[in-house]
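Entry:
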Amino acid sequence: MENNKTIIKQFILDTLLEYKLDKNKCAFIDNESLGYGERCVYLDKTTGKTCAIGKWMNPGPWQSIEASVDDVIDQFNDQEQMFKKRLLDLNFSVKALTLLQQFHDNIGLDMVNKNRHVIRDLEDMFEINLDELKDESDK
C-alpha cells in the first residue's frame, strides 16, 4: 500500500508542480472577444501547452473541448482512448481528476489561495503529504 501511495504522490507532483513553479506553463486562452476572460484548455494548439489533465490526454477531439473534466469524460465516454496509460493505471476517480484540474486553473486564474483546499482534499483522499505543492506558510 505504501508503494502505491508513493506512486500516486509522484504522479500528482509530476502533474502539478511545474504549474506551481511557473504559472506561464498553464494552458489558458483569452476568450475576451467571446465575452469571458481567460479559460483553461486541455491543449493550447498555438503554444502546445497543456493543462493538468490535458498533459495525460492522448491526441483526439477531447483536447479541444472547453468543459469540465467530468463533462469531457461523459461526452466521449472512452477513458481508455482519451487518457495515457500512466493515468489509467492509477484508476483515479473523476473527483481526483477534477481536483488536479482545479489546482491548475486556480494558478492560471490567480486564485492560488484556493489551492490550500485542493491540496488538503488530495492529501485526505490519498492519505499522502503534498508539502511540495504548498506555500511555505501552509506547511
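The chain has six helices and two strands.
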